[in-house]
Please model this.
Amino acid sequence: MEQDEAAGNDGGALAVVVSASAQDGAAVDRVLTEGGYRVRTVAPGASVLDAVLDAAPDLLLVDLPTAVDHVDSLPDVLTRHPALASLPVILLLPENWSGEVPEAVGRYASDVVFPPVQPAELLHRTHAAIARRRRHRAQRASAVRLREDMRAISARIRATNDPAVMIEAFLPGVGRALGAHHVALQVFHDERVAAHGSSWTDPAEGARAPLAAPRREHQEGALPLALALWEDSATGTFSAGPGAVPHTGEVPVPGWLQEGDAGRRTLHGVVAALGEGDTPFGLLWIMSEEQPQAFSGVEGALTQHVLGNLAHGLIQAQLISRQQQAVRKLQALDQARSDFVGTVNHELRTPLASIAGYLEMILDGVGGELPPEASTMLQAVERNTAKLSGLIENISALSSRESEAPEHGPVDLVHLLSELAGRAVSEAAAGRIVIECTVPDHPVTVSGDRGQLSAALAIVLSNAIKFTREEGSVSIGLAHEPDHGRVVVVVRDTGIGIPEEDVPRLFDAFHRAATADRALPGAGVGLSAAKKTVEAHRGSITVESTLDVGTAVAITLPLLEHAAVG
Model:
């Protein structure tokens, strides 16, 4: 109580006195003035609201008759001037008063002074009312500062995916915001997060030695406490050291605080659980060496909130770390695969080139004339050598499309398709197959790598010729659809067709479709490579086929103005 009085009379606080009786108002004025207050008395008939707004007092003393006269207008006044809601009001009751204060008036009064007014009582109630107001203001200001501090800590946590950076921002931020001397974080071994122990000591307190951080072996003893606090969404208090006096309900002192230098200090603290979902995975210890610690409602709520942000950040960081490790492993495996394919291609190309060369020389008669039977067998060897060489080329193309992004530029599909059709005429003529190419008489430009698009379209066209019977036909069409921002290339044949059950797997690498009596020729990598190329160009490829009727392959690509040019 002495503290309240001192707080209320330390700077000449201002009081406004309103009384219908000039004599009573003067008496109250005299008591307050002698008590060290500045006083402004409102004369009868003057505007109370104007006087209050003009003076901005620390306290309003008003007699009951005046309060009753103005009570009906108070709701509107407080709506227009909400700051007045915190102004303490002492109600001065009339002489010989024995009734009850009307409820409509009483709800706005902070205190009442009964007649006859005693100077000591009036000063005491005045001091207490002003002290309460100042204390509430200080608490509100402290809560605002704490809220801003915690918001800044949460922002720093969300700004990084590095757990160490999160904790480096969290510990000193929380310690300074709560006025602690020491803060320790204990993260248990959990599938969601990595085990961790760290501590912080306020560097402004140079005489205080830092506390050792909790270690992993302390987890077993701390886990039951974390579970209990987490289940009740509560915090616990504790006192440790030679000067500590345990209180009922305090949590046990953790083992790591009883070791070494920490065991010789007197520490008071608050502990809260850290976690997410149904189970915790850590504890936060907030300590002072001077006086017992306890969270106010605002401090507890804000600390729990920022702890939730830290828990979420640590979990996300662990997930990202695992994803990055998986990506690095996949990249290493992909590089190993590429290296293997490159090595195999190189090692196969060299002997195949030698075999093909010698076969050509033998068939040309360089080594002497061959018997017809030997010539026929060597021609079969030559054909299979060519197939093997083509397979190697397809594997190499498939591997390169998986690992290399195309470098895009403008590509005229009309020119490209005309060029491919011209090249395919001789291949088609050998099987007496007709090639038809229907394209617009103007350029149709897409964004892409010309070499890769040419290879993908050549695969589709070659397949159409390969699986078309003699006297059949292969048509190449280009549909320009500027309204939809795309172009569709359709390669249609009158070939043997593909079984319905094999169509969904045509683009799987090394899948070979089969009819009822035989497997279709080829290694099954061409369409897979073509699909990867088309998708790398932000397009799509689809197949429709009917056995013994034919197949249609449609390739859709975005037009240049609708595609990103690299």
Notes: The first helix runs from residue 2 to 8. The chain has 14 helices and 17 strands. The longest strand covers residues 267-276. Residues 543 and 553 are 5 Å apart (CA to CA).
